[in-house]
């Protein structure tokens, strides 16, 4: 382990945690009255997920949550970010809550609190009840109303113990990776309907904020994944390509949320795909309600260049076919996700975000981490030096952003456990803790011990600062 002097030096007020998501760790897919989600369906569609794997068992957190909370307590985190599975609460996405599902989250929250850790609850981490997808899913406005109803149920049950709430996780991935690229559930390649999904996700967020405020549930935010976008060259064409991508990746969420406006260049980016039929007067007021924090997930930068549209017919394009092409970063290490490791771009993204949106609330870094080629030695120990270096360098980059005036209040490593990594199945490992998927045994990696040492040092700084 590193000497404390070599650990990142961060402000004493900064809170630390780790994060997980329901479908990626819970398992128990057919237990306790849980209904099917779009990811259950997607995983059973041939060719969608590596080796046809599913989240049916995942890490079996549904049964082993006590063991996992003990790992969190040993780690010494301040916060634990988890998500509630909508189909475990409402199996068909509507109607009365499922008692067994709510009882599970009661037990989980109580166990986290008993360990001296503050729970941070994400209401939606991509597992839409399949019954709602069958009636249009996020493409239709009614799903936003159903999400508000679901939020009210969870807030009424857990609002007395959970004081930090995240409405949505990465709506970019829901609307565009799921509905336009097709690499996530529901696995479609759409144009205008994907843009409608983006709007309805924002509307659902705003309605959920209203429900949480009415329940006096505590601090409320949303988690986005703003991308740091770099032009491949300094040509006017490549710089214009980055601006189009900035609209697709970042502005479509940030402008309605924090600037009170729809996009001023949507026609330039999407052309004939833009259709305002799904918008109603007053929607921006609902979407743009003040928040207590914004969650930011960050992993890597993206380099882009101008390129022809994939589909020549403008009316037949998907919402991501905007005339850009991704370019590989040269001369840097890449994680097993194929993502370039460029820590200074973390600083640049946060400073840029802070400058572009003066009304941005305080930031929580709700995910940051790396998938690595973790191989246990003969004793079962994982010496994941690359992950430690990634976390150290990104925490130093975070410190630089804070020094530049960005108001960051917390940081979460993704993830506590190796888990079901969506379309990659169990082929990518992000965890501080290795999961043996055959035996479901947990084995803390070197990065777990490194992070624990960092948190011990951080607690000492807090004591000194008092």
Automatic annotation (TrEMBL):
List its EC numbers. 3.2.1.21
Catalytic activity annotated for this protein? Hydrolysis of terminal, non-reducing beta-D-glucosyl residues with release of beta-D-glucose
Q: Which controlled-vocabulary keywords does the entry list?
A: Carbohydrate metabolism, Cellulose degradation, Glycosidase, Hydrolase, Polysaccharide degradation
Q: Which Gene3D superfamilies match?
A: Glycosidases (3.20.20.80)
Q: What SUPFAM superfamilies has UniProt attached to this entry? A: (Trans)glycosidases
Question: Signal peptide location in the record?
Answer: none
**Molecular function (GO) terms listed?**
beta-glucosidase activity
Does Transmembrane count among this protein's keywords?
A: no
Q: Per its UniProt record, what Pfam families does this chain match? A: Glyco_hydro_1
The protein's matches in NCBIfam families, at most eight in alphabetical order, are given as: BGL (TIGR03356)
Family of this protein: Belongs to the glycosyl hydrolase 1 family.
> Which protein are we looking at?
Beta-glucosidase
- The source organism is Nocardiopsis lambiniae
Q: What is the lineage of its organism?
A: Bacteria, Bacillati, Actinomycetota, Actinomycetes, Streptosporangiales
């Amino acid at each position: 382990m590193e000497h404390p002097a070599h650990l990142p030096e961060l402000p004493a007020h900064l809170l630390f945690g780790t994060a997980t998501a329901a479908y990626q760790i819970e398992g128990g897919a057919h237990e306790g009255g849980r209904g099917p989600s779009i990811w259950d369906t997607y995983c059973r569609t041939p060719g969608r997920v590596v080796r046809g794997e599913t989240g049916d068992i995942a890490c079996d957190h549904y049964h082993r949550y006590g063991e996992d909370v003990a790992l969190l307590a040993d780690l010494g985190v301040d916060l634990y970010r988890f998500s509630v599975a909508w189909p475990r609460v409402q199996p068909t996405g509507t109607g009365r809550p499922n008692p067994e599902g709510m009882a599970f989250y009661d037990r989980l929250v109580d166990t986290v609190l008993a360990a001296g850790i503050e729970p941070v609850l994400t209401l939606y981490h991509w597992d839409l009840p399949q019954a709602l997808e069958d009636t249009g899913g996020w493409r239709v406005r009614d799903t936003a109303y159903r999400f508000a109803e679901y939020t009210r149920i969870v807030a009424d049950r857990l609002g007395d113990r959970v004081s930090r709430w995240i409405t949505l996780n990465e709506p970019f991935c829901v609307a565009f990776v799921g509905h336009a690229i097709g690499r996530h559930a529901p696995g479609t390649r759409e144009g205008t309907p994907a843009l409608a999904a983006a709007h309805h996700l924002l509307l659902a967020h705003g309605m959920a904020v209203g429900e949480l405020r009415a329940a006096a549930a505590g601090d409320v935010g949303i988690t986005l994944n703003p991308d740091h976008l770099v032009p491949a060259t300094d040509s006017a064409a490549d710089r214009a390509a980055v601006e189009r991508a900035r609209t697709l990746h970042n502005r479509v969420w940030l402008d309605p949320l924090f600037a009170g406006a729809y996009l001023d260049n949507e026609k330039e980016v999407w052309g004939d795909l833009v259709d305002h039929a799904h918008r109603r007067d007053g929607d921006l007021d609902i979407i743009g309600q003040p928040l207590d924090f914004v969650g930011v997930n960050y992993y890597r930068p993206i380099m882009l260049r101008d390129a022809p549209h994939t589909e020549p017919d403008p009316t037949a394009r998907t919402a991501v076919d905007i005339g850009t092409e991704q370019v590989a970063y040269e001369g840097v290490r890449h994680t097993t996700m194929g993502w370039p490791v460029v820590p200074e771009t973390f600083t640049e993204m946060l400073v840029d975000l802070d400058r572009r949106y003066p009304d941005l609330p305080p930031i929580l870094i709700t995910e940051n981490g790396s998938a690595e080629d973790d191989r246990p030695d003969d004793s079962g120990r994982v010496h994941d030096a690359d992950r430690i270096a990634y976390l150290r360098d990104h925490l130093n980059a975070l410190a630089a952003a804070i020094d530049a005036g960005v108001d960051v209040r917390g940081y979460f490593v993704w993830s506590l456990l190796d888990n079901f990594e969506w379309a990659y199945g169990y082929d990518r490992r992000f965890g501080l803790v290795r999961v043996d998927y055959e035996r479901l045994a947990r084995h803390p990696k070197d990065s777990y011990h490194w992070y624990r040492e960092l948190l011990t040092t951080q607690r000492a700084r807090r004591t000194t600062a008092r």
